[in-house]
Amino acid sequence: MTRLHFSNLLEGEKNEAGSKAMAVSAGVVYQHPFDAKRRLAELNISVEAVVKAVLAGHTARLNCTDNDPPFIPGTEAWRFVVRTLRDELLPLGWRKDDPSNYSLVINDSSQINIVVASSDALTCSVRGSPRTKSLKGLFTEAAVLKNNLESDLFPETVEAELRKAATILSYPTWMLLIHIEDDDCKAELSLPWSFDDRSVTEWAERIFIPLPDSDGGLSVDEPADNADIDVPVKRKAG
């Protein structure tokens, strides 16, 4: 079944639904560590937990060898970020849920969801907007729809399946975008706002995660080619 973009779903339906999609021309970017930490604190998200999770994912990738199937390093990185994020946040009052294998960590008091997603090299770059690597699924579309509405009233044109998924999500869903390679590790917590036929492409907010040996992202005047972070560990030999 073909699903429509949220912009098509909302077009001409604002009055009937009693909801309004907020226009976002350029997302807010929290690039510098001080600003990023302050914004994470406002969202009641532990900076230490997020950093530990991302580094765990990087270590998991580096522990793979050339004898692993080609997709395993990326999968292991994603898996350990999700697991470690849950390990760190659940004792702080968060909970987990996996509707249709859409692995969330949820804070009911702050009314926020977090899902982990792999993203491209524009992660933590002010030169462009990152895109998710995996093909978008039902719950990613539902998250974008939910993030665009000011209430739980959906346009009549929204398919029942998509409406149900958006209702299950309950709260706005942020994505912990990870770009983890052998010699490069970057992450940002961003609020998805729009997508194309394949992936999420626009973000209402972007919070660059201040990792060790990272300045929290590129400065406006710094070329994108200098975004690599030096990591002294090498992938294990097969």
Search tags:
single chain, alpha/beta, seven-stranded mixed β-sheet, disordered N terminus, 238 residues
Strand order within the widest sheet? 1-7-6-5-4-3-2
How far apart lie the N and C ends?
43 Å
Which sheet architecture does the biggest sheet show? 7 strands, mixed
Helix content: 25-40%
The H-and-E topology, N to C, reads as HHEHHHEEEHHEEE
Specify the structural class. Answer: alpha/beta
Got a strand count? 7
Morphology: globular
The low-confidence parts are 1-25, 216-233
Mean pLDDT: 82
| Secondary structure tally, helices | 7
Radius of gyration: 18 Å
Summarize the structure.
This protein is of the alpha/beta class and about 240 residues long.
